[in-house]
């Protein structure tokens, strides 16, 4: 019944929802994932893309965006572009709608929200609220979400009017464009300010490095170090060439002297003592003095040649010619010309050998001087590399600044593109009413079954013979039905059946007592753990059945003070009772029942179905073990009688049957007669 009521409630509630029309649109946001497309040379990472799209969605759902949609609807209404508002002459609060339109355009241009402290803004706010255009109501019209992990956004707008769903979708997209443009503009402005600061710092650093290089050159007198170094290198090359020429000349003169000696036929040196001539010594010392002066010069001579000693050489040549005339010559062995050449070669060889050390000393001095430029070139190279790096940084930042200014004038680096525009839906969204009704009934049924199973599982009471056997590890001898349930059902046949069942169970107990009654007189002790277990009612019924069996039966009841009371006298006058039934107080209250254990009595232990076991229950059963004892489960509910193997004919609903099967794990209970 309850699942049917739940399904009916869902049917009633969903009947007022009406039809829904859904308009869909797709958008793409172009985020620079490549460094080359980014102003800052840093592409968007996946988590940054997710954060940006999430921020855009939250901005779109903000109150500012919803207010933009509401004001756009109001502005279009005042301009006659829609008829969505139900404004009558009495509800329309403005005499001049142009002032409202101007105010809305100003708010859009300034990207501001309404200020309720202004009378016009407060009036617009109240009017939009009365028309149902609140922030929450507009937010409920659409759903914006990201498609997977892509850069695509999906917009769904739903309304009872297909035109309204498409119209609201377009306004939401316009709001998204405004928000995305504002986000880009703020970001680009921040980048522009950052680049302007970095460009100024880079320019200052470049100027400092250039000034530092110039100061270093002036300090070390190397304004044009490359040209200066080039001149030194050229001079070293020229001196090296002259040195090589002198060495080659000396070798050629020695070769010429050897050949002339062979031609003239001189086996020994000519008797020419040039060192004894004062004039020759004077000229030779002049050359040596010149060499000594050249070695002491502090400045580099770029054009080092032998022109400066040419005059000295001519004088020596003339002196040699004079000596040749005085040398005795053997006309038979050599000619005068050969002798003249021989002497000239000797003079040239002597002069060449004197010049070679001079040239070598000049070369060493220039090389030593050139070494002082190596540290200068290294430091200057370092300065120049730093200047080059500063120039590159400066140019990159200038380009980034120009790019940021260009982007700021355009659409922005993160462009939002509409792939599918909102369209007017032709058919309503398929209703889920039938599914909701069915699901409500099924879920209600499942919840009820779960609650019943939970109650059954958590309930520690002993309701059936199965529970009794599971808890006490003993099977009750008799199971007495609860006759009070039959009275409540007003089912006479069921009451008659249960009454017959009750009598049969009591009769089986009487027969069991009769099997124990070996002597003429027998005492029957009826005990229970608690009062109210039904001992007196059972004693009265049992007396009647024992009388049918031919036993005079007396029933006595005891209170907690062990005072004896005749409950039901025996029926046969003049005869002593053969069976005496003693109804004792609750075993949990007094312990006097234990004295009956020392006698050969018959014990009946009653347990009221439905109550939880007491700590005294196992103790009583343990004390009765090995004695003439009969356990009786009293007042068992009709639904639990089947556990005792008793067939009960009763009309049960389909749900009740299956709940019982689930609880008892009996899916093939053939004895149940189901009546839907």
Quick recap:
It is built from 19 helices and eleven strands. It is of the alpha/beta class and 676 residues long. β2 and β3 form a beta hairpin.
Q: How is this fold's topology laid out?
A:
Layout: H1 2-14, E1 21-30, H2 46-60, H3 63-78, H4 97-110, H5 119-130, H6 135-139, E2 142-146, E3 152-159, H7 162-219, H8 225-264, H9 278-296, H10 310-326, H11 336-371, H12 374-409, E4 415-420, H13 433-458, H14 465-472, E5 478-481, H15 483-489, H16 492-516, E6 522-528, H17 535-548, E7 553-558, E8 564-568, E9 579-583, E10 602-608, H18 616-624, E11 628-636, H19 654-664
Structure in words:
Mean pLDDT is 75; it is low at 292-306 and 666-676. The protein is of the alpha/beta class and 676 residues long. It is elongated. The protein has helices at residues 2-14, 46-60, 63-78, 97-110, 119-130, 135-139, 162-219, 225-264, 278-296, 310-326, 336-371, 374-409, 433-458, 465-472, 483-489, 492-516, 535-548, 616-624, 654-664, and strands at 21-30, 142-146, 152-159, 415-420, 478-481, 522-528, 553-558, 564-568, 579-583, 602-608, 628-636. The chain starts with a helix and ends in a 12-residue tail after the last helix. A hairpin with a 5-residue loop joins strand 2 and strand 3. The strands form 2 sheets. It has a 7-stranded mixed beta sheet, with helices on both faces. A 4-stranded antiparallel beta sheet has the order 2-3-1-4, with helices on one face.
Structural descriptors:
7-stranded mixed sheet, 676 residues, alpha/beta, 4-stranded antiparallel sheet, 11% strand
């Amino acid at each position: 019944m309850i699942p049917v009521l739940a399904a009916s409630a869902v049917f009633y509630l969903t009947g007022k929802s009406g039809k829904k029309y859904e308009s869909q649109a797709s958008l793409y946001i172009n985020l620079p994932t490549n460094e080359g497309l980014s102003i800052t040379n840093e592409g968007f990472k996946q988590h940054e893309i997710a954060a940006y799209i999430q921020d855009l969605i939250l901005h779109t759902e903000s109150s500012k965006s919803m207010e933009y949609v509401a004001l756009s609807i109001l502005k279009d209404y005042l301009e006659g572009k829609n008829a969505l508002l139900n404004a009558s002459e009495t509800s329309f609060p403005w005499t001049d709608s142009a002032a409202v339109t101007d105010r809305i355009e100003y708010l859009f241009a300034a990207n501001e929200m309404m200020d309720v402290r202004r009378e016009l803004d407060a009036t617009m706010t109240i009017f939009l609220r009365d028309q149902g255009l609140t922030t929450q109501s507009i937010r409920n019209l659409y759903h914006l979400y990201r498609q997977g992990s892509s850069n695509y956004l999906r917009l769904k707008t739903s309304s009872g009017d297909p035109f309204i769903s498409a119209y609201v979708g377009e306004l939401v997209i316009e709001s998204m464009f405004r928000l995305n443009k504002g986000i880009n503009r703020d970001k680009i402005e921040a980048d522009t300010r950052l680049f302007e600061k970095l460009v100024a710092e880079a320019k200052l650093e470049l100027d400092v490095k250039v000034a530092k290089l110039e100061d270093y050159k002036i300090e070390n007198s190397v304004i044009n170090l490359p040209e200066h170094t080039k001149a030194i290198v050229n001079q070293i090359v020229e001196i090296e060439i002259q040195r090589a020429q002198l060495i080659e000349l000396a070798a050629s003169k020695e070769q010429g002297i050897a050949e002339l000696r062979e031609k003239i036929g001189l086996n020994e040196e000519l008797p020419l003592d040039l060192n004894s001539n004062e004039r020759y010594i004077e000229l030779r010392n002049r050359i040596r003095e010149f060499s000594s002066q050249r070695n002491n010069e502090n400045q580099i001579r770029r054009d080092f040649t032998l022109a400066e000693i040419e005059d000295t050489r001519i004088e020596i040549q003339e002196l040699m010619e004079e000596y040749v005339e005085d040398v005795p010559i053997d006309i038979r062995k050599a000619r005068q010309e050969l002798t003249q050449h021989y002497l000239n070669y000797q003079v040239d060889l002597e002069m060449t050998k004197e010049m070679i050390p001079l040239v070598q000393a000049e070369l060493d001095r220039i090389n030593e001087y050139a070494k002082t430029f190596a540290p200068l070139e290294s430091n200057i190279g370092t300065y120049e590399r730093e200047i080059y790096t500063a120039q590159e940084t400066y140019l990159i930042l200038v380009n980034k600044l120009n790019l940021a200014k260009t982007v700021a004038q355009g659409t922005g680096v993160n462009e939002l593109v509409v792939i599918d525009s909102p369209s007017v839906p032709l058919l309503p969204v398929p209703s889920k009413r039938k599914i909701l009704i069915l699901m409500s009934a099924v879920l209600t049924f499942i919840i009820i079954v779960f609650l019943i199973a939970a109650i059954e599982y958590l309930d520690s009471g002993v309701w059936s013979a199965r529970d009794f056997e599971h808890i006490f590890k003993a099977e009750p001898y008799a199971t007495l039905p609860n006759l009070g349930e039959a009275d409540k059902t007003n089912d006479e046949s069921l009451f008659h059946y249960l009454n017959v069942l009750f009598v049969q169970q009591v009769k089986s107990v009487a027969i069991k007592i009769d099997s124990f009654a070996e002597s003429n007189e027998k005492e029957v002790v009826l005990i229970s753990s608690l009062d109210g277990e039904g001992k007196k009612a059972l004693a009265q019924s049992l007396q009647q059945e024992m009388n049918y069996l031919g036993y005079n039966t007396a029933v006595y009841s005891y209170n907690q003070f062990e005072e004896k009371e005749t409950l039901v006298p025996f029926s046969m006058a003049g005869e002593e009772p053969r069976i005496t039934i003693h109804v004792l107080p609750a075993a949990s209250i007094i312990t006097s029942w234990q004295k009956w254990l020392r006698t050969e009595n018959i014990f009946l232990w009653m347990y009221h179905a439905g109550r939880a076991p007491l700590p005294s229950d196992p103790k009583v059963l343990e004390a009765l073990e090995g004695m003439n004892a009969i356990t009786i489960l009293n007042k068992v509910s009709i639904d639990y009688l089947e556990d005792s193997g008793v067939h009960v004919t009763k009309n049960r609903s389909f749900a009740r049957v299956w709940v019982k099967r689930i609880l008892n794990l009996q899916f093939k209970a053939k004895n149940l007669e189901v009546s839907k």
